[in-house]
Amino acid sequence: MVCLGHVLYDIRCYVDNFPLPDKLSIMAGRLRHSGGGSAANVAVNSQRLGLKTGMIGKVGFDEYGWYVVQNFRNLGVNTDHILVDFKNPTGVSLIIVDKQGVPEFTQMIGASEPILPEEIREDYIQKTRHLHMSGINEEALIHASKIAKESGVTVSFDSGRKKSELGLNKLKPILKNVDTLIVNRHEAKVMLGLEDNAQILDVAKNLKKKIGEDKTYIIKGGKENVLAYSPNGDFVVSPFKVAVKDTIGAGDAFDAGLLAAILRGKTLKDAVMYGNACGSLKCTQEGAQSAPDKSTLETFLKENKDKIEVWNLQKD
Fold this sequence. Notes:
The protein has about 325 residues and is α/β, with parallel strands linked by helices. The protein has helices at about 40-50, 65-75, 120-125, 140-150, 160-165, 170-175, 185-190, 200-210, 250-265, 270-280, 295-305, and strands at about 1-5, 10-15, 30-35, 55-60, 80-85, 90-95, 105-110, 130-135, 155-160, 180-185, 215-220, 225-230, 235, 310.
């Protein structure tokens, strides 16, 4: 699997409560640092689950860039197609996490984008089984997804916060090449231009109606249910309950689990449960790239599968 998107350097600190203006919050322990960026998180976490993964992204010519590239290499992610920008610094996320595990972000995209279409090697995408994309510049997303589509490579897209805000019309050139769209509840509503109080079942039906019934739509729920709409049927999966330590990258861990299961030939229902379990276990650990390995995940699923519910939705 090849992942396309931001490659960032995460700097994290943990506090009891978020700082207020002109007030002090005391950090628990030292500053932590790790690799970040949605697509990069999916690449690393999928590698932990036993998939062979590679990354298309861009870093600066600096110590942060060196760190994230070495991090990929240490974890087995292919870095042959990570570009180096000699003018701009590696992108950085400054993250504060409170005692509930909720993060607040300040981000500098830096060298992470744009990735120009001519910087993407067609043969790298053509030779992979699957392309996963997250919220990088539209030109790169359109170009890469078109290469994949024309080559018979399946494509998933997690639009994230910023790309969802572009709206459906601007995203259509990307979405026409996508097989699986992965969004959370808020992103789905924003993409469709709906109010935040819109019913999630109506949101899912609208995605399917306005983008195409031949695609798969996964609406992540966090603490709530996950909805899956596909040509083979629509269903809902309830979440696992865990002691939450840090929710950074939980959605990316979900994506990694989902895609790892799909690429191993599991049913979509099993894949969503796999993704749910992967995202849940990540929440018990610090950092965005701390999803479990395959053995840990499958043991957790075996022990907890009877604690969740799966039910089919009736067709209209």
